[in-house]
Write a structure and sequence with these properties.
MetI-like fold; BP-dependent_transpt_permease; OppC_N; MetI-like; mainly alpha; transport
Length: 285
């Protein structure tokens, strides 16, 4: 364990990476892992109970839904939508938020004031409501879901990172770089960005969990992917009408969302504790 990087020695980071690795394997190898076609309807096997219950079918380990579709297969293929949105949307929101945060914190003055007012106005709208409004205008589809999340959640990065940039902006080594003649671009990328990178990585891992929840909400109300693409929120919506006959159909996608969000959140918490020098120094003392 001693030869591993400090951040990788954390139990939280290791747990989060294992969970994300499991989800990634399911998403990448879904056609080979899933026991059935997720969209294949077997009307003779509607609401089949799971394998451990009476009347089960070995072809459907977790049973079937109201259209005879395999629950396990739909869960596995739904991982693709969740992780695609989580990674791409979080990365896009991070890029926009980080750029504006570094510009605002470094230059200050009217630039900081203008970006700060835009962030405050944007944050005045409830995130989920704003996402729904954007989806109404953009239309359904996974690309529009990603775009909506990016347009809503870039403020999370900008608001937190700006305060960190303001602190680093006053450090002596930044002033020394300016005295030497470093350009603004070189000062930000060489002197300030390395100091904000740990916080940036932590925020991105936490944002991935938020993106999974937002996508599930949008697919629950039918504003995410199409009906031919399995998604966890879509599965929850389909299972409501048979919640008493087949409660597992509702519990499985709920647990999948919880499992993914828990993995991203515990990874983010572990990275925050490992990479933030202020926290590590406090724990040692």
């Amino acid at each position: 364990m001693k030869h591993l990087p400090l951040w990788l020695r954390s139990g939280r980071v290791q747990t989060g990476l294992v969970i994300i690795a499991i989800l990634a394997v399911c998403a990448i190898f879904a056609p080979w892992i899933a026991p059935n076609d997720p969209n294949e309807q077997n009307l003779l096997s509607i609401l089949t109970p799971p394998a451990w219950a009476d009347g089960s079918d070995a072809m459907f380990p977790l049973g079937t839904d109201s259209l005879g579709r395999c629950i396990l297969s739909r869960l596995i293929f739904g991982t693709r939508v969740a992780l695609t949105v989580a990674f791409i949307a979080s990365f896009g929101a991070m890029i926009i938020g980080a750029i504006l945060a570094h510009i605002a914190g470094y230059f200050g003055g009217w630039v900081d004031w203008l970006i700060g007012r835009v962030v405050e106005i944007w944050l005045s709208f409830p995130p989920v409501i704003l996402s729904l409004i954007l989806m109404v205008g953009l239309g359904t589809g996974i690309r529009n879901v990603i775009l909506a999340i990016v347009l809503v959640d870039w403020t999370r990065f900008c608001r937190v990172l700006r305060s960190e940039v303001l602190v680093l902006r006053r450090r002596d080594y930044v002033a020394a770089a300016q005295l030497v003649g470093f350009s603004h671009w070189r000062t930000i990328t060489r002197e300030i960005l390395p100091g904000t990178l740990p916080l940036l990585i932590t925020l991105m891992s936490l944002e991935m969990g938020v993106a999974v929840i937002v996508e599930a909400i949008l697919s629950f109300v039918g504003m995410s992917v199409g009906a031919d693409t399995p998604a966890w929120g879509q599965m929850i919506a389909d299972a409501r009408q048979n919640i008493y006959e087949a409660p597992l159909n509702l519990l499985c996608p709920v647990f999948a969302i919880f499992f993914a969000v828990f993995g991203f959140n515990i990874l983010g918490d572990g990275l925050r504790r490992s990479l933030d020098t202020r926290l590590t120094q406090t724990e040692r003392t």
